[in-house]
Amino acid sequence: LLCPCLLYGAYVFLPFDAPLLPTVSARLVYALRCSAFATFPVVLGMIISGISRLCSSALEPFGELQREVEIHRTFVSQSIQLFILYFLNMAVLATYLPQELLKLIPLLTGLFAISRLIFWLSYAISRSFRAFGFSMTFLPLLAMLVWNLYGMFVLEPENLLS
């Protein structure tokens, strides 16, 4: 329930508009540029994971990982997987959205990045709290997938593969 409220509030109250993007290629470039910001939590996680691995007191490099190192490694691997799904859905979404709704692309990117950081923080605190951050990442991704499938099979079935 929080994700739609956050997106609606940001859509209405943030003072920016998407640029005029009449072609599919311009929309894809816009989605690609916005998606670059979604890599911030992944890169930050890789840096912190490397630092925690260097600072761990493990004498054997291939031995059992400490909890702190395991948290960062798990966060990075899950974030990469979710980013791939996010990016593919964002690219398709950019082709189906009407011009007045293209403002959602940077908003969804920001929600993805913030949600991954919330997941990381809650996962570090306790594993039982990670569901909130994961659902803030996964449910918008699921909504994008449903919209993309709706757009492909219902709105424009004649252009499915073109």
Description:
With 162 residues, the protein is an all-alpha fold. The protein has a single domain, classed as Four Helix Bundle (Hemerythrin (Met), subunit A), CATH 1.20.120. Helix content is 73%, strand content 0%. It has six helices and no strands. It has helices at residues 2-13, 24-36, 40-55, 67-96, 104-125, 130-155. The longest helix is centred in the middle third of the chain and has 30 residues, at 67-96. The radius of gyration is 18 Å and the shape is elongated. The two termini are 36 Å apart.
Task: Work out the count of structural domains.
Answer: 1
Q: Number of DSSP strands? A: 0
Predict the CATH topology.
Four Helix Bundle (Hemerythrin (Met), subunit A)
Q: Could you describe the largest sheet, including whether it forms a barrel?
A: none
Average pLDDT over all residues: 85
> Which range best describes the helical content: under 10%, 10-25%, 25-40%, 40-55%, 55-70% or over 70%?
over 70%
Total helical segments: 6
CATH class: Mainly Alpha
* SSE run: HHHHHH
- Gyration radius (Cα, Å) is 18 Å
Low-confidence regions = none
Q: What is the general shape? A: elongated
Question: How much strand?
Answer: under 5%
Oligomeric state of the chains? single chain
What structural category do the secondary elements indicate?
A: mainly alpha
Please specify the SSE layout and strand pairing.
Elements lengths: L1 H12 L10 H13 L3 H16 L11 H30 L7 H22 L4 H26 L7
Helix pairs in contact: 1-5, 2-4, 3-4, 4-5, 4-6, 5-6
